Amino acid sequence: MKISKKITKSLGKLIAGDTGIAPYMSGPELVEFYNEYDFDDEYGQGFPSRWVYSTDKITESNGSLKLQKILEDFVDPRRFIGTEKKVEIVVDEVNKLIKIDGYTLVKNGELYKVTDTHGNFIQEENLTVIGHEFIREQIEKCQQKIRSEDYNGAITNARTLIEAVLIYIVEYIQKTEVKNDGNLLNLYSRAKKALKIDYKKDEIPDSAFQILSGLDSIISGLSGFSNNAGDRNANRFNTKRHHAKLVVNSAMTACDFLVDVLNEKKTVD
């Protein structure tokens, strides 16, 4: 879902509650609201104006299906219980902003869903599609953490990205839900078999085998590095900026390759 940049500020203010039409959300409430959509923000010193923060989240979500989910949840009638605000008025206001871009919120049962100009619902399952845009967004989050010197957080985010890509590959190809037990190497093994890239040395040229073996080493190293240096555990390693950059860049390379292989498989199948 992509909207004009001209309306992102208006949507940001509307969601923050600055227009008086929708329920007011404090800074911590806004952070909690947007963190439901894979953001990882914290409220504290240096936090921008509420409407600026809200607008930034709309801008970051623009061009992805994440924006659809934000708008649908924003007008969830349950958010208006106990307030004097009317969800119907808010829906009308949102529709005034997004209709020129070819979208509208329509009532579907008790909730509201985004439809396109032809009245077609954007299907829920499409929200889980993982591709290069998703990777780019997650790598940018990692880089933001590096810039803020949160090196362990960047490593944890990189590992989470790899897990998400591997799970998506297995679930897409095998049509089965993956119960993630946190074992990155097992996930990678399943994804390789699903993609049919688990080559033997005599099946491909030596140079190609070496590169693919390097990919194996990246995943193995990332698994061990994130266990020791990621913020999910006590930091048993004095993580520096160059360590975090190495992990994040390696994760990006691995994920880009795996998604490319998956996309090629989709066209062949």
TrEMBL record:
Name of the protein: Uncharacterized protein YqgV (UPF0045/DUF77 family)
Cross-referenced InterPro entries: Abi-like_C
Residues of the Abortive infection protein-like C-terminal domain: 186-260
Lineage of producing organism: Bacteria, Pseudomonadati, Bacteroidota, Flavobacteriia, Flavobacteriales
Natural source organism: Chryseobacterium lathyri
